[in-house]
Design a protein that fits this description.
Helix content is 24%, strand content 31%. By secondary structure, the chain is α+β, with helices and mostly antiparallel strands.
């Protein structure tokens, strides 16, 4: 079997320490092997990472202007949750620790989600889906 692919989502941040503290409070860790004074490797899972990169360093990777996420949406990042309670816990923790609201909660019965903006205004969605709905290929 081939190894699962890894994904590294690169996000520009204004203040690396503020952003690291925010995600630490949400229970995430960092891989020091891929972190330095301008970059922090946020570990989301065994194969998914967010590279939080200070804006000056991020500019080294692109010829384009960096999007101002407080005015435009450049990406929506969605994380799965194991329960509705886990969705609420992560969103509430984010909002209590420097995050801000993004969109209204979404409740389709079989699927529930909330979203927040991190300190750099990147939008994160946390979503739970009823396992029976996933197995059945649709609404439970």
């Amino acid at each position: 079997m081939p190894q699962p692919q890894m994904i590294f989502v690169n996000l520009p941040v204004k203040d690396l320490e503020t952003t690291k503290n925010f995600f630490s409070k949400l229970g995430f860790g960092f891989n020091p092997q891929f972190s330095d004074d301008s970059t922090a490797c946020l570990v989301i899972s065994d194969t998914i990472f967010a590279m939080l990169i200070s804006e000056p360093r991020f500019k080294d990777f692109t010829k384009k202007e960096i999007a101002d996420a407080s005015r435009t949406t450049e990406v929506l990042l969605a994380l799965s949750a194991e329960s509705r309670e886990e969705v609420d816990e992560m969103a509430d923790t984010a909002l209590a620790n420097g995050g801000s609201p993004a969109n209204d909660p979404m409740d389709e019965g079989f699927m529930y989600g909330r979203s927040f903006q991190d300190p750099d205004h990147h939008i994160w969605e946390v979503v739970w889906m009823d396992p029976a709905a996933v197995e059945g290929g649709g609404r439970a």
